[in-house]
Amino acid sequence: MRKRSVSIRGHRTSLSLEDAFWDALSAIASERGISIAALITEIDQTRASGLSSAVRLFILEDLKQKAAACRTESAKLD
Hints:
By secondary structure, the protein is of the alpha+beta class. It has helices at residues 19-32, 36-46, 51-77, and strands at residues 2-8, 11-17.
């Protein structure tokens, strides 16, 4: 578990995530061409739970969407 500080809408906060989640968050931000802080700010705007939990759920949803897209693409090739 790693704790990092980020700035969200002008205030500093910290969140703790496992390394695998930090890696996934970094990859998603890179794919979108934005910083990790900008992505966390987006997540923060729609969250209904704690920030760390919201980030984990966001990553899970992103991975589920990518898996569904892969299944759809694979079905087209069959």
